[in-house]
Design brief:
This protein is of the alpha/beta class. Helices cover 49% and strands 11% of the residues. The chain is built from 12 helices and 5 strands. A 5-stranded parallel beta sheet has the order 2-3-1-4-5, with helices on both faces. Helix 2 runs parallel beside helix 11 and helix 3 crosses helix 11. It is globular. It starts with a helix and ends with a helix.
Length: 283
């Protein structure tokens, strides 16, 4: 199965999340069954990220959106764990600071977009400004409605500058969210993750569904596609995202840069040093 096509939101299509099975896991019976494939793509990710870093011609921006407990942190751990931290950044976006709120809504996001050769992951993203803002009526409707176009222009600008953009909506159902809330209650090591806000947002499930569907429908473009990833099974979420990122990077046909030195000359110098050190008398 081609995951890129399976989970891709076609530009101009109308998204209905109720028709998408959050428990989908393809042909895999279990995490154990899928593990060899998961590990294969983790290694491919590591190799491709190293190649992007060396080539230093383009960058990758990964945006993660989802409800509370959808697995954004776990996805980052899996994807970033396969990469060299030297070539990656992760930025989590929460309530804007006073400085951020004093600028246009895209200002704080633009500041952390990746430079050439780098991979940047957004834990939540510029889409918060058509999600939370919309659901909680923080700005007038005419303001957040304009933001879809602003976001599309922003992403087009990044793409024109050599940034490849992949956006993932981590799709879980209400029952799975509750199960994960319970895990946090039962496991002392997860107590730090518990927030009053999680429970305050739960009654607004339908309102968030409407907001997510609008963002996914209006802002999936050829240069910045959205993918709806079934995420009830954490291991399948990781596999699907790894595959899509890998296939996207493979399609770029990246190449290592040409050496900046004469390799034959360097070889001669190396062998000369080895020969000289081998002929030195031992002490």
């Amino acid at each position: 199965m081609h995951y890129f096509k399976k989970f891709h939101v076609e530009p101009g299509s109308k998204v209905d999340l109720s028709t998408i099975d959050a428990s989908f896991k393809d042909h895999h019976e279990s995490h154990q069954h899928a593990l060899p494939e998961i590990e294969t793509y983790r290694q491919k990710l590591a190799d491709l990220q190293y190649l992007m870093y060396a080539e230093n011609k383009r960058s990758l921006l990964i945006c993660l959106q989802g409800r509370d407990a959808a697995g954004k942190d776990g996805t980052i751990k899996h994807v970033l764990g396969a990469m060299n931290p030297q070539g990656c950044t992760v930025t989590g976006f929460k309530v804007p600071t006073k400085e951020e709120a004093a600028h246009d809504f895209l200002w704080r996001y633009h500041r952390t977009t990746p430079e050439k050769g780098q991979v940047a992951i957004f834990n939540r993203s510029h889409y918060e400004d058509v999600l939370v803002v919309r659901v909680h009526n923080l700005v007038p409707q005419q303001v957040w409605e304009q933001r879809y176009a602003h976001i599309n222009h922003f992403e087009q600008q990044l793409a024109d500058s050599g940034t490849h953009i992949l956006k993932f909506y981590l799709h879980i159902d209400p029952e799975e969210q509750l199960a994960r809330f319970k895990q946090r209650i039962d496991d002392p090591a997860r107590h730090w993750k518990i927030s009053d806000n999680d429970y305050a947002e739960r009654p607004l499930w339908d309102e968030y569904t409407t907001a997510f569907e609008a963002a996914l429908s209006q802002c999936s473009t050829p240069h910045a596609p959205w993918f709806i990833i079934p995420s009830n099974h954490k291991w399948f979420r990781n596999l699907a995202i790894s595959r899509i990122v890998t296939e996207t990077l493979e399609a770029l046909n990246m190449k290592f840069p040409e050496p900046t030195v004469d390799i034959n000359e360097i070889k001669q110098k190396y062998h000369q040093i080895v020969a000289e050190e081998n002929t030195k008398p031992t002490q």
